[in-house]
Amino acid sequence: xxxxxxxxxxxxxxxxxxxxxxxxxxxxxxxxxxxxxxxxxxxxxxxxxxxxxxxxxxxxxxxxxxxxxxxxxxxxxxxxxxxxxxxxxxxxxxxxxxxxxxxxxxxxxxxxxxxxxxxxxxxxxxxxxxxxxxxxxxxxxxxxxxxxxxxxxxxxxxxxxxxxxxxxxxxxxxxxxxxxxxxxxxxxxxxxxxxxxxxxxxxxxxxxxxxxxxxxxxxxxxxxxxxxxxxxxxxxxxxxxxxxxxxxxxxxxxxxxxxxxxxxxxxxxxxxxxxxxxxxxxxxxxxxxxxxxxxxxxxxxxxxxxxxxxxxxxxxxxxxxxxxxxxxxxxxxxxxxxxxxxxxxxxxxxxxxxxxxxxxxxxxxxxxxxxxxxxxxxxxxxxxxxxxxxxxxxxxxxxxxxxxxxxxxxxxxxxxxxxxxxxxxxxxxxxxxxxxxxxxxxxxxxxxxxxxxxxxxxxxxxxxxxxxxxxxxxxxxxxxxxxxxxxxxxxxxxxxxxxxxxxxxxxxxxxxxxxxxxxxxxxxxxxxxxxxxxxxxxxxxxxxxxxxxxxxxxxxxxxxxxxxxxxxxxxxxxxxxxxxxxxxxxxxxxxxxxxxxxxxxxxxxxxxxxxxxxxxxxxxxxxxxxxxxxxxxxxxxxxxxxxxxxxxxxxxxxxxxxxxxx
Length: 662
Fold this sequence. Notes:
Blueprint: H1 4-20, H2 25-49, H3 55-75, H4 85-88, H5 99-121, H6 127-143, H7 155-158, H8 162-174, H9 182-201, H10 206-217, H11 220-225, H12 232-252, H13 256-272, H14 275-294, H15 297-325, H16 343-355, H17 360-363, H18 374-387, H19 420-435, H20 437-440, H21 445-462, H22 469-472, H23 474-489, H24 494-507, H25 509-513, H26 531-534, H27 543-555, E1 562-565, H28 574-584, E2 589-592, E3 618-623, E4 633-636, E5 639-648, E6 655-661
Helix pairs in contact: 1-2, 1-3, 2-8, 2-9, 2-13, 5-10, 5-24, 6-8, 9-10, 9-12, 9-23, 10-23, 10-24, 12-13, 12-14, 12-23, 13-14, 13-15, 14-21, 16-18, 16-21, 19-23, 21-23, 27-28
């Protein structure tokens, strides 16, 4: 399968860095991944500009990259095998770790293997992925470019596309979405390597590095997202790389190499998700202050180089958004930001964000012995709001997607799961750091804590509350891993930190096996649920109407598979792509028609395969308001379409209508 091509290229980068530049394997892994991420972005943007973002174009591009890696290794001795018998003869391999650390790493390996199995065996079914993460990937493949296109869902356009660039290339090279979840899974695995390196830079010995890895690997939200097509772990990975190369620069000095890797890591983080602006800002500000203190022109030059690389990696996306909405961000973000900016609001916002990780009783499976504290937590936060003169359910302080504040119970759902045990460990570590002067004086501990806490404060200050914010906290928890581990191993004896690691490994097992939509143990598990049904796990009430609609399309004109989407409320889009491809094969197409937003100017006049945009032989329309009347006619840029078929959505959730040309 051609999917092996980008993996071989990554291996080539790794061998060049490890053998020619003599980097230790963990550092070479991070460096090679950053180079790989930059290469993938450049390939995507270049091919897209030429209209060649196709399986053939991507495959040839990666073959050229592999050829270049092979040339470099041969030219600089990377493939040479020594003929000296003294060097060829190696000592028998001996496992270097004692029993208990080996057991902890075996527990981490268990998590990695189970999540890998989930990622490969399960179909993508996260609601956001169905709405825009994977839907935009299908439009890119259809058009042969990542240029903006007409769509009812603007999130498919303006959202940062870095993670989807990788998913799109994997799907182009593999011909399906079996590897789509592996982008997040791979990000988790390399993040584990990264946090161990950061812990080493903070002065941790082997015990501290292993504890950092265990802390990161057992994050409930991380375990759930590792088998999904969201992008929070992807941005966490690039922020880990940014943090590591920044610490490396502070230890060994400023070089062109470190400046390039810092700029590339920052650029890839921003390209992956908008939260990178928030979490990277304190670190970038600290770097700016440090640069000013150096008082050397070369430092400024290299800082400018790093900023230029970060900008160039995002330039294509910025330009597309500027053309769409006159803003590089592409959308007005005021709906999700706090409209009341004051100290009382900041205090209550911090408490609300922390409450997303407050259900530690259920997280430790102690609900049979201890009453869960979520209700008490909600009452305390409500009292604090009253004392500060604030309405806890003020719409200005809540996301438009929710109507009231509540403390959510812990769940095995990748959008809302909290990290209760880890938040307790973070709080304990910060209290120890504040109370012990000797720790505050140690290398970068206090500075690192200040930067991470500042990132959380900025997040709380800017964004409204919703139960889905917990997934946006994932990068912060990952970055806290080496800091918490360093503080704990310098405070407690090995038996205490060992018990903490064991508790973390044992407590994460429910999230491994009872993922709400990718369960291994539930009645409808991955073992007995057909893949097509897995796409509908989060919206089961839509499966029968979609299947019935496909049966109707099969009968229209001997098979109608060039379909238009005619309503903004038709948000559950990706499964329709899958069904169309199953029924119509490569001749199926899906377009948004009658679009009434700025994207309607982004008309694509030709199709890369057929040479012309196919006229939809049918338009699907979803009316989610059960009290509204479904349209009998719909005027589109392709002409007038009239209703020929309709079916109600179960539980009075609307009507699915099919319209054909008049």
